[in-house]
Amino acid sequence: MAAGKRTQTGGPRVVIIGAGIGGLMTGISLKKQLGFSDFSIYEKGNDLGGTWHTDIRS
Ligand SMILES: Cc1cc2nc3c(=O)[nH]c(=O)nc-3n(C[C@H](O)[C@H](O)[C@H](O)COP(=O)(O)OP(=O)(O)OC[C@H]3O[C@@H](n4cnc5c(N)ncnc54)[C@H](O)[C@@H]3O)c2cc1C
Asked: Which of 15, 43, 44, 51 to mutate to test the pocket of ligand 1 (most atoms within 8 A of CB)?
């Protein structure tokens, strides 16, 4: 996860790389624990879940 530039509203811009369990839980925690929803999650695969998703299908 990288945090740096500020958005137009003045808050930090957060980018989460990877929608595995780590990335998804980071997004959920940002929202639920901090009330922060100004973030993006980028996933290079076709679906969410990372290793767990890949493993279930194989
Ligand atoms: C065979 C196997 C069995 C396991 N069994 C268990 C178990 O029983 N219990 C348990 O607790 N843990 C288990 N684990 C471990 C568990 O799967 C990992 O700890 C967990 O998936 C890590 O989550 P993560 O989100 O950090 O990484 P990942 O699940 O690997 O997710 C990373 C995501 O980031 C994406 N990504 C990577 N690079 C980029 C990029 N440059 N740009 C965009 N997206 C990117 C990937 O496509 C992926 O979707 C197992 C692992 C394996 C391999």
From this structure: 51
Residue of 31, 28, 1 whose CA lies nearest to 14: 1
Residues in the chain with pLDDT values less than 70: 1-9, 55-58
Side-chain-side CA neighbours of 54 within 13 Å: the count stands at 8
Sheet holding 12-17, edge to edge: 2-6, 12-17, 39-42
pTM confidence score: 0.83
CB atoms within 10 A of CB 22: 14
